[in-house]
Write a structure and sequence with these properties.
Blueprint: H1 8-13, E1 18-22, H2 26-37, E2 42-46, H3 49-55, E3 64-67, H4 77-87, E4 92-97, H5 100-103, E5 112-115, H6 121-130, E6 137-138
Parallel strand pairs: 1-2, 1-3, 3-4, 4-5, 5-6
Helix pairs in contact: 3-4
Amino acid sequence: MTPDFISATEVEACSAPRVLIAEDEILVRLDLAEGIRALGWEVVEVSSADEAIELLRHPLHVDLLVTDIQMPGQKDGLDLARHVREQFPDMKIAIVSGAAHIVEHSQDLCDLVMWKPASDAVQRLLVLMKATGDGPQHR
């Protein structure tokens, strides 16, 4: 079911991207994944940057990474974003975090920054996937 704020035409304009969500807060991750799946997009969920980096070592095409910054493990969301920028330069990256002071110094690593709580995250991700190289979007 498509959320009310998104038209069916907008959903059809983005042909089923695959989204990797790296978020350790399970309720945040589940809510975001549910909203993205409502668009008809495929979602892969992990709870750490380490898991995401390991997953990306396999032949799995991902169109969009949505990551938190502060997560358990050896790597954080910024390490993950750097890895993706180096290894998969065409993949779009969205950071969703409460750590604004950290993000401010790493804006070149992502296409979209959203501060928690990001109640409009799904709508903004849809806009991001439709955008054509307009540079980082911040909120």
